[in-house]
Structures are given as C-alpha cells and as structure tokens.
Design a protein that fits this description.
Largest sheet: none
Number of helices: 11
Number of strands: 0
Radius of gyration: 18 Å
Number of domains: 1
Shape: globular
Length: 232
Amino acid sequence: MSQAVQVPPEFQETEEMEEWEKKLENQREDILIPQGVISDYFRWKTFMEDEVEFWEVGGTWHTKPHCARVLLLSLLIGNEYHLPKKEINALAMASVFHDSRRKTEWYDVSHGQRAADYYREYCGTHPLPFDERTYLVMAGHDRKDEEWEAKIREELPDDRYVVFLYRIFKDADALDRFRLGKGGLDVNYIRTLKAKTMVLFAKHIWLATPEKVFEEQADRRRDRRRRARAVK
C-alpha cells in the first residue's frame, strides 16, 4: 500500500476514516458532472481521436474507449480537488497518451515509458505544450508507487503537485479495471479519497459509456426543470 499522500496542504485528506466509509457505502452512480468537465472531456477526446496513434495489440482492454474513460475520471478527480487548469491539462494529456504504445494486452512493463516518449516526440513536432509532469506520470504509471514516487521527487523536487498528479492518474486508470472482469478492481489499492467515492460511478460509465452518462444527466436536469415549472 502507498504511504500517505504528500501534497500541498490544501489538498490533504482531512476526513476521518469512518467518514470515508460512510461515503463509500452511500456513493451513487449518478455523480453530477460539471459542464466544465464535460467540455474538457470532449476537447481532449477529440484530440485523442484525431491526433494520437495507438499501436494495434489485438484486444479491447487498452484501446481509446478505455483511455476516454480514464480521461473523464482524471478530470473529475482533479475537479473535485479544485486543481488549477495547468494540472488538469497535465492529467488529460497523460490520459489520452498513456496506453498508446502497448505491445500486448497483457503484462507490459515499459509501455508507460514508450507512451511518454511518444508524447514528448509529438510535442516536439506539434503545437501541444510539453509538460514534464505529464511525461513522468505517464512513464511510471506501470511501475510500483514507492519506486516511481521516489524518482519523481528526485526529478522535480520543487514541484508541489507532481506526486499528487501521479496518484490521481493511477487511481483514474485503476477505476476502469471493471472491464477486466470479476476481481479486476481492488478498492483497497485506491490512493485518494475522492477516487474512493467514485467506484460505482466508474462501473456505470464502463457499462454505459461517458456520452450516455452525459445524456442521462441532461435528461435528469430537464425533468427537474419540468417539475419546477409544474409546481409554479
């Protein structure tokens, strides 16, 4: 298991464990998704579809639909922590590139490094800003936490967000493990409190797709407006 998250004070997990357990028991599938998150999702998903080339590995576990779900989860967790826009974008870039250079659907240590190198090469020839945090988060997402967090701290000792970004991203990736079948996700290995409350939601977006979830949310909003007008 990971050590306590080392992040700026404003992002420290301050709730007691019993509060977390209550949230986990009462979590819902229909988390309210802010419009800004939806807009960012479509922006980065379109970028991925148009610009990011994935190696063909002959399966469905690590394709663009998986990366799209990780994108939405990364954006949501980042939004829950009120991260600055630059950090949100760092998570988004990691999401859309992270599985693009897999050689197999199975155990493939170093696919993160290959994807990070591809991201760096892409930024060198296209108008996408290179963020070293994105590079490091992506390069180590298939490595053990303790090992890679030590490397991150060594590489960027003065960056106050990078370790937290790493943990958020790995949680977003892990939350999509429902696609791997029964036992694919062990919630005990989720690192951040906000991610722990999104387990049922993550399963829902895997079953329904993010776009369908957006439609369901829009339908609920329309129903609420109709009911409100009827009361008046």
